[in-house]
Amino acid sequence: MDYSYEDLRAIAYKVSSEAAALLRDNICDPRMAERIRGETTRADKLSEDYIVEALVREGLNVTIVSEEMGVKGKGDLVALVDPLDGSINYINCIPWASVSIAFGLGPKRDGKGVIVAGSVAPVFNDPPLSFTLGKGCYKGGIKVEASDKEESEIIAVYIDNKDVAQLLSKASFLQEYKLRSLGSASLELSYVGLGLISAFLDLRARLRNIDIAAAYGIVRECGGKVVDGLGRELSIPVMPIKKLGKVIAARSIELLEKILEATS
Fold it and tell me: DSSP secondary structure string, 181-241?
């Protein structure tokens, strides 16, 4: 089946927005913090169930790859879903969390393929961010043009404690920035694309394809770069759920090179 990438962006935008609204309606409800199994909360499950049902209603022949349920379906189109990124924030009534949906096409047997459209919907405040492969990125319904704003003073950093001293000792330039770890990696990575955050570093090698597939597309379509710890363009497999290793992103090539030198 042939798919319009722009139609897929519209679906990702719509469904992620609706799931975010559902979560927003239930914020600070203590029942949302209940554990269903393992680390999965009732909030995670509520959002995931809604997304799965909504994608089915759209009539897509889709395989859904999600944090909570794993892989479901046998369609040629793949939906990579993170139903609630920032669940700890959410269950503690902290307004920084998001819903991510990305669509991928290509061979599923070896996990390769291409991410063609997606959306990251903040549960609070801002409109969803989205992208279409080769067509650009969007904030709400407005296409994001090249930003003339000065570089942000914020860098989002996710590192283990053992890495802190080494990183800071080798990266004196970081003293020019405010380092933040806010708890929703997909949002922070997406904001790199908008220029609201200068760079994103996850040196823990814990992020998975479902966590940042949509945000990855947003950064690239907004004119930024997303690379691995060796500076190679990051590859996002469409399935199964897979860790990606170190993830580094920036719009400024000069800043990206400084970060790579400091983290090598």
Answer: --S-HHHHHHHHHHTSSSEEEE-SS--BHHHHHHHHHHHHHTT-EEE-TTSPBP---SSS-
For 141-147, which contacts have Cβ atoms below 8 Å and span 24 or more sequence positions? 144/193, 144/194, 144/222, 146/223, 147/194, 147/195
**Cβ neighbours, 10 Å, residue 159:** 18
Nearest Cα to Cα of residue 171 among 255, 252, 264, 258: 258
State the residue range of the domain holding 162: 154-263
149 assigned to some structural domain: no
Rounded to 10°, the helix 185-194/209-221 angle is 10
110 pLDDT higher than 60: no
pLDDT in tens, 209-236: 999 999 999 999 999 999 999 999 999 9
Tally the domains of the chain: 2
Stated pTM of the model: 0.93
Q: Do 213 and 116 form a contact (C-beta atoms < 8 A)?
A: no
What is residue 115's predicted lDDT score, i.e. its pLDDT?
96
